[in-house]
């Protein structure tokens, strides 16, 4: 069957806009032209792709399957064409990034500030999130996460050096409740936990002893998805908490927090900027990759 690229383009516009009128405006054609193109495509395939009422437009099950398979392929074609046409163009446009809330080195400010100063035509939209999802399906250009959780089919560029998670508490807490000498004792302490999303379980605290990795399921008296609330509450003496050493560093240096159980907290691979494995990168993303490499 010959590929009807025009019909596919119109179908994708309708699927993404969920509106014949909005799709027509986006494509610069009339609404009847969009309707006729969709009808011809449906007749050719012998299956309904779009459900239409006077109030809404939605995809049928067949339409949803077609969209999920065709949209990434068309995006790849568009990216290749853009890269061919704009290889020597100055980086510009919107760069969408999904960044872990604990990627302190990336979101601290200097890296992004120096990038936007060097590339004023690029606008950056950063979504700080710890939810796991497909950055391609969600329309992001790249993401920043710990290397150990990045999918194998992604290209990854180091953003930081080795990282370490650590246990901390305020001196005022330790003076009242004492200092644990082994991770197993944490279950008897007041703890402040972190969860990436409201429906997620609190993060399990991970340790290593004599080359053996294990975790401790503490029972937090306070749990939050806000890293800074967790830090401030720990500084106030509410309990022991656990997180990235880089996040705690200013408070450790000032003495507001004290490190605990360091011998059970070995270093591990740090954060990476990751993006789909594509030969042709948009100039804006290529510029960010080069900037990250220089900034390290």
From TrEMBL:
Gene3D superfamilies: 3.40.190.290, Winged helix-like DNA-binding domain superfamily/Winged helix DNA-binding domain. It comes from the Bacteria. It holds the Pfam family HTH_1. Keywords: DNA-binding, Transcription, Transcription regulation. Coiled coil: none annotated. GO terms for biological process: DNA-templated transcription. GO terms for molecular function: DNA-binding transcription factor activity; sequence-specific DNA binding. InterPro entries: LysR-type_TF_proteobact-type (IPR058163), LysR_HTH_N (IPR000847), LysR_subst-bd (IPR005119), WH-like_DNA-bd_sf (IPR036388), WH_DNA-bd_sf (IPR036390). Residues 3-60 form the HTH lysR-type domain. Transcriptional regulator of the ttuABCDE tartrate utilization operon. Belongs to the LysR transcriptional regulatory family. This is HTH-type transcriptional regulator TtuA. It comes from Rhizobium laguerreae.
């Amino acid at each position: 069957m010959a590929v009807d690229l025009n019909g596919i383009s119109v179908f994708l516009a309708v699927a993404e806009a969920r509106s014949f009128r909005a799709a027509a405006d986006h494509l610069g054609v009339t609404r009847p032209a969009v309707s006729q193109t969709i009808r011809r495509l449906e007749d050719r395939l012998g299956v309904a792709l779009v459900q239409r009422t006077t109030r809404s437009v939605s995809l049928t099950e067949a339409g949803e399957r077609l969209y999920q398979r065709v949209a990434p392929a068309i995006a790849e074609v568009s990216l290749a064409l853009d890269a061919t046409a704009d290889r020597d163009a100055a980086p510009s446009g919107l760069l969408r990034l999904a960044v872990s809330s604990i990627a302190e080195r990336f979101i601290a400010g200097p890296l992004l500030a120096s990038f936007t100063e060097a590339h004023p035509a690029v606008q950056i939209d950063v979504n700080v999130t710890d939810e796991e999802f497909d950055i391609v399906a969600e329309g992001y250009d790249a993401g920043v996460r710990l290397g150990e959780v990045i999918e194998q089919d992604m290209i990854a560029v180091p953003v930081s050096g080795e990282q370490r998670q650590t246990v901390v508490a305020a001196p005022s807490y330790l003076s009242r409740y004492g200092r644990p000498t082994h991770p197993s004792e944490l279950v008897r302490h007041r703890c402040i936990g972190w969860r990436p999303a409201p429906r997620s379980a609190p993060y399990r605290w991970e340790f290593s002893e004599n080359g053996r990795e294990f975790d401790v399921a503490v029972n937090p008296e306070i749990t939050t998805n806000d890293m800074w609330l967790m830090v401030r509450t720990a500084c106030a003496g509410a309990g022991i908490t656990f997180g990235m050493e880089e996040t705690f560093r200013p408070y450790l240096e000032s003495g507001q927090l004290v490190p605990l159980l360091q011998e059970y907290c070995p270093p591990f691979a740090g954060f990476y900027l990751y993006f789909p494995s594509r030969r042709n990168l948009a100039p804006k993303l290529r510029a960010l990759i080069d900037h990250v490499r220089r900034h390290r």
